[in-house]
Design goal:
Layout: H1 5-24, H2 29-49, H3 60-85
């Protein structure tokens, strides 16, 4: 179960920021939620593949904060792209 906590925190960060950016670009909030979850988990795996390590520190709070920020950035980007694709002309 402990291996899934960083993924859940990353998905939570994407779920928070994805719909916000999607709505700012005129997309639907639902696309932002789904895009945020997928983008948040994808950003977490991408950061692990890039071997970024613990940039904010090694304490548990900072590790979770970094996971939340990774998810927020990835979810925001995918939510923004989803909002741009679904924008009505």
């Amino acid at each position: 179960m402990e291996a899934y906590i960083p993924l859940i925190v990353s998905a939570l960060g994407g779920t928070i920021l994805g719909p916000v950016l999607s709505k700012l670009l005129g997309g639907s909030a639902m696309m932002g939620v789904f895009g945020g979850i997928l983008g948040g988990v994808g950003a977490h795996y991408g950061a692990d593949a890039a071997s970024t390590g613990q940039l904010l520190g090694s304490s548990p709070v900072m590790v979770h904060l970094q996971d939340l920020l990774e998810g927020g950035i990835g979810g925001g980007i995918v939510g923004m792209l989803g909002g741009a694709l679904l924008r009505k002309p």
